[in-house]
Amino acid sequence: MELFAQVPLAEATSFTKTYGGDTCNALVTASRLGSSVGFITRVGDDPFRSYLLSSWQAEGIDTSWCRVTAGFNGLYLISQQPRGEREFIYYRKGSAASTLEPGDLDQDALKRARLLLFSGITQAISASARATALRASEIVRAAGGDVAFDLNFRPRLWTVMEARAALEEVLPFVSIALPSAPEETVAVLGLSDPAEVARFFLSKGVACAAVKLGSQGVLVADSKRSTFVAAVSPSHIVDTSGAGDTFNGAFLHGLLAGQSLEYAARVGVVAASLKVEGRGAVASQPSAGAIWERYRAIYG
Q1: CATH label of the domain that carries residue 284
Q2: What is the pLDDT of residue 85?
Q3: In whole angstroms, what is the distance from residue 206 CA to residue 220 CA?
Q4: What is the number of domains present in the chain?
Q5: Would residue 132 count as lying in a domain?
């Protein structure tokens, strides 16, 4: 759950209710572009349960694997700072999602999946969620599917040593890496140069890497070539939350649709540029029509 304030949190007297989350945000983007998506998580049986499930379903997300369990749903409070930057406070230790465990996985569904997406946050919220991400990766790759991983390092959730160990255990199953540089790659990998970051993941057997560089753009690379795709300048910036997740969803949708790395990355930066022009991780997600309209205006 997300509670948003227009002013710094210490000064706020009212909040707007909505929802968000890195993998969830990416699912919304991919779904709006036409991908068939499903969410694997646990939902707490609190007053927000029906709101979350109905909101996801309205976005075309299959919630068949969203297990409702006793407990509460995680919460974050966010306020908007100048130029769209954000102030966050999280309350999610012990939340329903953090109790996710390997037994929640539908192995038959995972074997049919073309792609699995998870992040470092999935691993960080609990030992059982980390084990679930690893097991899901093993199942998907064994069945011939792809596994996409967003490093998404959050030092408030765990230590650098823990993040490195968790990365090493899933790398043998990751085929698409989605790190952000330089902040998190310096912290976890000791690397700031995007080309070096890409080479690190490729050397570990990852098929392709998209190194996100914020307002600069993205470097995409595979074993054959490396290409820089410049960011698309938004008309204005309202809220940067979820921009990287929006890129992830559009980029992965493109790869599943058979697009080249460069083409898919272009779709991703276009989608991200539209996302930051509105408020909310999901509320400001662009439609497919808006994405393609801006894409044609820029790239022809």
Answers
A1: 3.40.1190.20
A2: 67
A3: 12
A4: 1
A5: yes
Q: Of the ranges 36-45, 77-86, 253-262, 288-297, which one carries the lowest mean pLDDT score?
A: 77-86
- Whether 272 contacts 12, CB under 8 Å: no
Q: What is the rounded average pLDDT of the residues 63-74?
A: 97
Using alpha carbons, select from 225, 280, 230 the residue that is nearest to residue 84: 280
Distance, CA of 146 to CA of 207 (rounded, Å):
9
- Residue 79 domain flag: no
| The pLDDT value given to residue 7 | 87
Residues annotated as catalytic are 245
Q: Whole domain around residue 136: which residue ranges?
A: 21-40+105-299
Span 104-116, pLDDT tens digits: 999 999 999 999 9
Query: Is 266 inside a domain boundary?
Result: yes
Q: What is the pLDDT of residue 279?
A: 86
